[in-house]
């Protein structure tokens, strides 16, 4: 089997065109994408209902009321969660942000003070969080006035503060005016139930805290460009490499290999190892290039990076061998692989970040190699997760599982299609 | 060395082999002769473990093919019909790769590669990529790659298809040398002259059946065919032909030519010429047609071996 791998590697490196297409083209594309993706994270598209994790530290009727108000919004679905668990989830990239209602929320609400609310978030999901912030702002700014009689109370209190010491008669007349005003607003609210909160007043602020903040040299666009493009190009390359199996069949060398005293399955395993080795080299070159040219900090994450590169290479190369084993000719491999790679790359986040896609596409994306690979590289360079972190390892595991599934099917198909050569 | 018994192979509804049997002795060169589609390659494919037989037994070097395919593989070398080499690798690298599949120690293998390249006259071009080779040179490397593990049995499936005369002669010389050294060779071809030159015994295969086998002499005798002397005359008349045919019954007239049939042409030729002379016939051309595989095949199957 080692001899087979050595032979394939020798063949690969003896063909300059192959080497150029495998290594130089992805580098060019990465360079291009790094510049193109400069604007990533500024999109304002959103159509799905956002799952907002909320930690209620105040745990009062008022805080629950506020949460119910949030949940009633068309664009938000509230998921209650303990603070520590929610913060962990943000750090691991499982959720974008957690909204915290701190202790004293009810008092502040009733007294008309600034609300102690905080949004802790993952900077990688800035686009999502930015849109969320707008929705939260509109809810919380209206909250003090949305409870019946609260508005009059707050206005009276604020007016008393402004006016200082005034006589009882004037104060009563002003309060009466506020009462009338409140009734008018209440009537209007009944008529126009979707009145914007910002119509009433302002003054509430949400404290924004980045729970996951990237280092400056690992900007999101850079990680997205390098990881996304590298995986997409790798998928194209491995399909071509896998197709050498069909070339061997067509040129008679496969038959000649079968004459030799080696197990027929070893021919496929040898091909798998060869494609894996080239895949690892290709990914390594991509990241070293990104480090040298764009300053992607790979040196501080080498073990995690190597593990993710190996897992991604394994999943991608098994895809290449899988395609070759189901196709009947090189032409079929080219057609099939182009279609599937483009599809996986567009859904899986190679062409644009997954969070910018519609909800149903985001759900489908988990079935692609690209998704798990890109998220894994996000974990390393953006979320800065350690090697032993469960979230990171779960992505490695997902890639290994996908790869093993592809390999298993490839082996079955190889025995069924390719070995029947006479 | 090789024993094939009642070998059958069916592909879907097509019966490619219809129960063929033959034995090949150690050191023998056995030719399988037949037209395209006769079943030669199927037989070789089964004997080289590439195909499983539908029925029948095969043993190679005392190993049963079904029970010990791996041991059989170690003892055989196969030269396939198509040139199966890696074009982007040099001849040397190709040989190194193919040889290494049989676990020949590196030092031994490199020595054998040098020796084999020398045998095939390709030492000077050994580092050139195979894609730069001519068809004949590729064929030679194709054969060389099957010899590096020193197999006891060599299967050669039409190894001279589409090559130049120089390469063909070289291949013949190599096969003769291997044969002389004691290698058992199974050689399939549809070129009569190759089988006649190289093979000790020949099996004639047609439509999945061996219709005759033996040495060339045995085949001649079994076919009961006669050799022919074709003589053309300048003054052949009906009267003269009647005179001749009364004395030499087995003859036929075609215009100015008479075909004389004889069991042993060497013994009968002088008698025929004398009779013609006595009859006053002036000979202008003599053609001796001996029995060969082509004629035997034609008489056995009623068809030409190669499409013309």
Characterization of the model:
The complex is a heterodimer of chains A (422) and B (308). Chain A is of the alpha/beta class and 422 residues long. Chain A has a domain at 2-39 and 215-418. Chain A has 17 helices and five strands. In chain A, strands 2-1-3-4-5 form a five-stranded mixed sheet, sandwiched between helices. In chain A, helix 3 links the parallel strand 1 (50-56) and strand 2. In chain A, helix 12 packs across helix 17, helix 13 crosses helix 14 and helix 14 packs across helix 16 (369-381). The longest helix of chain A has 31 residues, at 264-294. The two termini of chain A are 23 Å apart. Chain B is α/β, with parallel strands linked by helices. Chain B folds into two domains: 2-221, Rossmann fold; 226-290, ACT domain (Alpha-Beta Plaits, 2-Layer Sandwich), CATH 3.30.70.260. In chain B, the strands form three sheets. In chain B, strands 6-7-8-3-9-10 form a six-stranded mixed sheet, with helices on both faces. In chain B, helix 5 (135-144) packs parallel to helix 6 (165-180). Chain B is elongated. The mean pLDDT of chain B is 86. Classes of the chains: A alpha/beta (422), B alpha/beta (308). The A-B interface holds A 3, 6-7, 10-11, 14-15, 251-253, 255-262, 421-422 and B 42, 45, 48-51, 70, 73-74, 76, 78, 80, 82-86, 88-89, 93, 97-98, 100-103, 129, 145.
């Amino acid at each position: 089997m080692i001899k087979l791998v050595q032979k394939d590697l020798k063949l690969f490196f003896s063909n300059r065109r192959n080497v150029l297409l495998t290594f130089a083209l992805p580098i060019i594309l990465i360079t291009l994408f790094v510049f193109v993706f400069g604007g990533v994270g500024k999109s304002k598209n959103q159509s799905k209902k956002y799952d907002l994790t909320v930690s209620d530290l105040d745990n009062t009727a008022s805080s629950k009321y506020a949460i119910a108000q949030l949940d009633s919004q068309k664009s938000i679905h509230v998921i209650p969660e303990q603070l520590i668990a929610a913060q962990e989830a943000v750090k691991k990239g499982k959720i974008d942000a957690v909204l915290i209602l701190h202790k004293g929320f009810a008092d502040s609400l009733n007294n008309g003070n600034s609300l102690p609310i905080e949004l802790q978030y993952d900077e990688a999901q800035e686009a999502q969080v930015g849109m969320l912030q707008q929705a939260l702002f509109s809810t919380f700014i209206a909250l003090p006035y949305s409870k019946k009689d609260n508005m009059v109370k707050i206005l009276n209190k604020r007016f008393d503060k402004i006016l200082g010491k005034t006589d009882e008669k004037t104060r009563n007349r002003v309060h009466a005016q506020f009462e009338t005003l409140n009734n008018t607003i209440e009537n209007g609210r009944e008529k126009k139930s979707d009145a914007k909160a910002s119509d009433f007043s302002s003054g509430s602020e949400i404290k924004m805290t980045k729970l996951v903040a990237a280092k400056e040299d690992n900007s999101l666009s850079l990680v997205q460009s390098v990881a996304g493009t590298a995986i997409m190009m790798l998928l194209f390359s491995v399909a071509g490499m896998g197709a050498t199996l069909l070339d061997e069949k067509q040129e008679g060398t496969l038959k000649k290999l079968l004459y030799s005293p080696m197990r027929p399955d070893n021919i496929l395993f040898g091909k798998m190892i060869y494609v894996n080795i080239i895949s690892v080299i290709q990914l390594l070159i991509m990241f070293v290039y990104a480090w040298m040219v764009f300053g992607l900090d790979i040196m501080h994450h080498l073990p995690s990076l190597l593990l993710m590169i190996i897992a991604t290479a394994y999943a991608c190369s098994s895809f290449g061998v899988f395609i070759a084993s189901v196709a009947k000719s090189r032409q079929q491999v080219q057609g099939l692989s182009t279609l599937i790679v483009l599809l996986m790359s567009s859904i899986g986040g190679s062409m644009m970040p997954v969070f910018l896609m519609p909800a149903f596409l985001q759900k489908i994306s988990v079935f692609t190699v690209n998704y798990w690979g890109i998220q894994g590289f996000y974990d390393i360079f953006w979320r800065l997760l350690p090697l032993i972190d469960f979230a990171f390892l779960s992505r490695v595991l997902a890639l290994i599982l996908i790869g093993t599934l592809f390999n298993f099917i490839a082996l079955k198909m190889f025995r069924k299609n390719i070995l029947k050569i006479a | 060395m090789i024993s094939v018994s009642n070998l059958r192979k069916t592909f879907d509804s097509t019966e490619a082999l219809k129960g063929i049997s033959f034995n090949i002795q150690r050191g023998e060169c056995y030719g399988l002769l037949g037209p395209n589609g006769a079943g030669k390659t199927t037989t070789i494919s089964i004997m080289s473990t590439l195909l499983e037989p539908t029925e029948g037994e095969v043993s190679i070097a005392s190993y049963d093919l079904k029970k010990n395919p791996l041991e059989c593989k170690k003892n055989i070398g196969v030269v396939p019909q198509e040139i199966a080499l890696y074009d982007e690798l040099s001849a040397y690298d190709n040989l190194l790769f193919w040889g290494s599949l049989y676990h020949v120690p590196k030092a031994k293998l490199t020595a054998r590669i040098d020796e084999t390249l020398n045998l095939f006259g390709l030492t000077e071009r050994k580092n050139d990529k195979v894609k730069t080779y001519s068809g004949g040179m590729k064929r030679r490397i194709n054969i060389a790659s099957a010899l590096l593990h020193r197999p006891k049995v060599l299967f050669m499936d039409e190894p001279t298809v589409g090559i130049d005369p120089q390469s063909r002669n070289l291949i013949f010389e190599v096969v003769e040398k291997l044969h002389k050294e004691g290698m058992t060779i199974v050689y399939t071809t549809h070129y009569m002259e190759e089988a006649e030159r190289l093979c000790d015994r020949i099996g004639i295969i047609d439509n999945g059946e061996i219709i005759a086998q033996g040495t060339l002499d045995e085949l001649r005798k079994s076919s009961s065919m006669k050799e022919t002397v074709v003589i053309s005359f300048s003054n052949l008349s009906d009267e003269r032909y009647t005179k001749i045919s009364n004395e030499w019954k087995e003859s036929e007239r075609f215009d100015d030519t008479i075909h004389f049939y004889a069991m042993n042409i060497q013994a009968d030729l002088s008698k025929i010429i004398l009779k013609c002379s006595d009859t006053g016939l002036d000979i202008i051309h003599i053609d001796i047609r001996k029995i060969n595989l082509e004629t035997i095949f034609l008489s056995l199957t009623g068809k030409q071996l190669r499409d013309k």
